[in-house]
Design a protein that fits this description.
- The chain has 202 residues and is an alpha/beta fold.
- Helix content is 38%, strand content 14%.
- It has 7 helices and 8 strands; from the N terminus they run E-H-E-H-E-H-E-H-E-H-E-H-E-H-E.
Length: 202
């Protein structure tokens, strides 16, 4: 990390994890199914990645692609995957769940957080689908999430910079907002300048 900037890289293979660490990543989000936005990786992948990198590895807990509304059976799968990820060395967990009206599913999140502890937990980019992001952030802070992955509720982090800044200002006293998105190299300097503010991590 340089000047308070931490780069997190989402990977779906051992090779990608190793390359991310070599490239300066300070944290890895491990998942499968990147084309679907990320799903739960295999525990074999987690084990081998942990053997090959030294940076923290946060594991995605998402049983399928698609929406963020989960059935009772899917919830049981998520709980089982959390327990296994902890057993196999995960440094943190990443998940998200919403209600049909686009709010944080506080009941389900509370239940999953209890299984995750004492590990730190990140709310993933389901956040970008919420009805009111400022209210949603307050909800996540009250629930105890340490980080939020967001592109500012837009198609990319660059296009969502204005909202990301507002979220960071709102949560800076107690939370970290992790900005996740895609940008073109010539615009990286302006993006980095915003991320350099306290409480925002890349």
């Amino acid at each position: 990390m340089d000047d308070g900037f931490l780069m997190e890289v989402c990977v779906d293979s051992v090779e990608s994890a190793v390359n991310a660490e070599r490239g300066g990543a300070g944290r890895i989000e491990l998942c499968a199914g990147l084309v679907e936005g990320g799903t739960t990786p295999s525990m074999g992948l987690l084990q081998v990645v942990k053997q090959c990198v030294r940076v923290p590895v946060f594991v995605m807990i998402r049983p399928r692609g698609g929406d963020f509304l989960y059935s009772d059976r899917e919830v049981e799968v998520m709980k089982a995957d959390i327990r296994l990820a902890k057993l196999h060395g995960a440094d943190g967990l990443v998940f998200g769940a919403l209600t049909e009206d686009g709010r944080i599913d506080t009941e389900l999140c509370t239940a999953l957080l209890a299984v995750c502890r004492p590990l730190p937990v990140t709310f993933h980019r389901a956040f970008d689908m919420v009805h009111d992001p400022l209210v949603a952030l307050e909800t996540l802070i009250s629930l105890g999430f340490e980080r939020v992955l967001t592109s500012g509720c837009d198609s990319s982090a660059l296009e969502g910079l204005s909202l990301i800044k507002r979220l960071a200002e709102q949560g800076v006293a107690s939370q970290s907002a992790t900005c996740r998105g895609f940008w073109k190299a010539p615009l990286l300097l302006s993006f980095t300048a915003l991320l350099a503010q306290p409480g925002i991590q890349g």
